[in-house]
Request: fold
Amino acid sequence: KNEVEQSPQNLTAQEGEFITINCSYSVGISALHWLQQHPGGGIVSLFMLSSGKKKHGRLIATINIQEKHSSLHITASHPRDSAVYICAVRHGAQKLVFGQGTRLTINP
Amino acid sequence: ETGVTQTPRHLVMGMTNKKSLKCEQHLGHNAMYWYKQSAKKPLELMFVYNFKEQTENNSVPSRFSPECPNSSHLFLHLHTLQPEDSALYLCASSQQGPFPDTQYFGPGTRLTVL
Reply:
């Protein structure tokens, strides 16, 4: 069992739909990251959070420390949102532990 | 464009070859990282350098040899690799301090070992 579990592994939706991707982790953390990886490999950091909620444009990330759970939401999804979304948790000062990723496909 | 560049973007090599991957960050960060991403597996941390000093080696085989000549450049020297080493190799950098930091990733080098 991975230390960081994401669900679903694959998600296909129609343009405009509200998207939720979930991340659960098993040990205490200092921070949680949501990353986006486009085809070709490049990774972009979307959010880093340790409590509460953050919003950037159509993206919203929430975290519940007690339940060891985080969600990434996309409102009014668009085909350009199609990518792999990766949850990663930080232990101590440096090491990030990554989930296996959620492959999102938004059809027009 | 994240401020982290990697070359080459694609590399095909035989098991007896020696090659090097290069990473350069233009962000003034003090820490750099090598990650390996194999098909259908989570990202795996390989090495961490902080102020040019290696601070983490995540049980990586010796056929992978990192080098960090300064805080802006990071190399991964490869020799006598195996086909199972074929993967996407990602470099990242961050500014480490007393609080959790954001890592900025390069585009990756897709390595194929024949």
